Amino acid sequence: MRILIGFFFKALAFLVSALPRRVRLFMGDVVGFLWFDVLRIRRKVAVDNVRLAYPSMNEEEATRIARASLHSMGRSLVEYCMFPFLTHTKVEKTFRIHGREIVDKAFQEGKGAIFLTLHLGNGDYSIAALSALGIRVHLISKEFNLQWLNDLWFGMRRKRGTKFISPEKSSFEILRALKNNDAVIFVLDQFMGPPIGVRTRFFGVETGTAMGCALIADRT
Q: Distance between CA 133 and CA 138 in Å, rounded?
């Protein structure tokens, strides 16, 4: 069954990757529309979070921003189909990379590099691009409960060279990756309170965040 699912999605990825970029963007917007306006999956959560960040914003504007966010996520899902065909040449044509000299300097010092990011924009696509450029990347990421989804979601990115670190055993794996002069990517926008995380404020609202990135950077 896994083999059939994998074959189907690889064939789908090939077809999508052959389409013009404007068509792929349109497909992503369709996914976002179905997600937000038809199926309405977590629609209220998205709108409430916008209102939480901007209390004075009216319902109409908050809904517009939340809808745009889901359209962006839809585009990201379509971009996932590009991963199997991402090469060094395609990255150079598609991406603008700023600050590469900072990363190269970190590797020259032999201590590895720490990246800090969040679930926004083209994160997964960018990580695949870093791998295609030859940077040895380790992404700290949770796994899905469904094994076939894990095989699909992580497998296609592993083939590009991206490696993954489970949060449950992150400390040792992070230190080992940095010792090997590799890059470790922290995704720091998921709630994590004490004792693992620390209390902080975001848009004036009390919340919690992981402290691993700051601790590892300080100690290394």
A: 14
Distance of CA 100 to the CA centre of its chain: 19
pTM reported for the whole predicted model:
0.83
Under 8 Å CB-to-CB from 19, ≥6 apart: which residues?
27
DSSP character at residue 181 = T
pLDDT in tens, 110-167: 989 999 998 877 888 889 899 999 999 999 988 888 887 788 788 878 888 899 998 7
End-to-end CA distance of the chain: 45
Q: Is 165 helix (H, G, I), strand (E, B) or coil?
A: strand
In whole angstroms, give the CA distance from residue 27 to residue 218: 43
Beta bridge partners of 165: 140
| Helical ranges in the chain per DSSP H | 2-17, 21-33, 43-53, 59-79, 88-94, 100-108, 123-132, 147-158, 170-179, 212-219
CA 167 to chain centre: 15
Q: Could you tell me if 162 and 123 are in contact, meaning their C-beta atoms sit under 8 angstroms apart?
A: no
Give dist(CA 56, CA 203) in Å, integer: 13
User: Which pLDDT band, with edges at 50, 70 and 90, does 104 fall under?
Assistant: very high
